[in-house]
Design a protein that fits this description.
By secondary structure, the chain is α+β, with helices and mostly antiparallel strands. The chain is built from 2 helices and 4 strands; from the N terminus they run βαββαβ.
């Protein structure tokens, strides 16, 4: 995909998937607002492998699903 999509368009088209976004447009808090979908999959590891293969200059990873209530995100 080569067209830039907004985060709403990405979430609507790729429900509960991991997304590799190229040339992400972000706000001051570095939240992704838009970008080019380079790859998507239900399998996170597949998206990470594709990122290693494509080697995008600027990229972000997104998950468009909801996290289980008892999970935590560690940065």
């Amino acid at each position: 995909m080569s067209e830039t999509m907004t985060i709403s368009e990405i979430e609507a088209q790729f429900k509960s998937e991991w997304i590799l976004v190229g040339d992400p447009e972000t706000n001051e808090a570095l939240e992704v607002l838009a970008g080019k979908v380079l790859w998507h999959s239900k399998d996170r590891d597949e998206v990470y492998r594709k990122a290693l293969e494509l080697k995008p200059r600027h990229a972000a990873f997104l998950y468009t699903g909801t996290m289980p209530k008892d999970s935590a995100i560690i940065l």
